[in-house]
Amino acid sequence: MAFSVKGKTAIITGAGSGINLSFASLLLSNGCNVLFADLKLRPEAEAVVNEFSNPTNADHGEAIFQETDVTEWKQLELMFSVAEARYGAIDIVVPGAGVYEPNWSSFWHPPGTAESTDPIDGNHYKMLDINITHPIRVTQLAVAHFLKRKQPGSIVHISSVAGQRSSSPTPLYNASKHAISSFVRSLARLEKRFRIRVTAVAPGLIKTPLWTESPEKLKNLSEADGDEWATPEEVALAMLDLIEKDECAAGKITGGTILEVGKDQTRLVAEVNDPGPSGRGHTARGIPKVAEGILDAMAVDGWGIPNN
Asked: Membrane-spanning residues where (predicted)?
C-alpha cells in the first residue's frame, strides 16, 4: 500500500503554518505537488509557496495556494476541483487545519458570553466545525476522489496526545482529538479493500505559532520544571513514513495506524490497553494551575449567562 510521494499531488488544509507547513515543505522537496488550503499564509509559508510556485529543480514539486475556510463545505469541494484541474489526480490528503481551545469557541466561554463568538442560537461550536467536522468531510471527498479514479490514496490526520488524555482547561480540544483518533481507526478496512490508507499522527508539545504566539496557552507549560518541545519537522517525518512505508522504527504501518510523536521519539499508539504518552515532549506541568484559575473564575456569579 505504501507509495513514494515523488510525482504525486497533495492537498493540505492548514498548510499556512506549523506542522502542516513543515509537512508541505517536506513533500515539495521530495517531488510532490502541494495545494496549500488555508485562510491565509504566514510569511514563512508565503516564502515556501513563492519558492516552489515555479520550481527550477526537476526533483521538486509545485506549490499553489487556495484560500479556504474549512468550515465552508463548498470551499472544501473547490480545493479538490482546483487541484484536480491543475494536476489530474490527487494522491495525498491532509485535513490538518485545527485550533487549540480558543477563547472564541471554548467550553469555558459558552455561546453568547463576552469572549465567545459562537452565537447563542448557532447550534454549533466553530471549534468543533474546524477540528472534527472539517476532517470528516475532507475525508469523504478524498475517498470519493480515490474511488472515482480507481487509484490508491493516503489520508493523514492530525490527532494529538490529547486524544489519549483528559485536560480540564481544554475539554473541547481533547474531545476533538479523541474523536479523530477513533475516526481514523474506524476507517482501517479501507486499505485492504480499496487501497485507501487512513492514518494519523498524535503529536505532543510541538513548538508552533499555535503555542508560541498565545500567552494564554503558554501558561499550560513550565519549561523551568522540565517541559520540553518537539519540532514540527519531527512530526512531518512521521507523516511521510505513514505514506511511504509499511513499516517504520516504531512498528508496522497499516490503515488505522496512529503514530505518537514526542521529542526524539515516535511510537505506535495501541487501540486498547495503551500505556499512554510517556517520555520527553509530552508533559505540560502548568495545566493544574491553569485549571484552578478557570474554576476560580467560575465561582463568580453569572458564569455562562449570555450577555444581554
From this structure: none
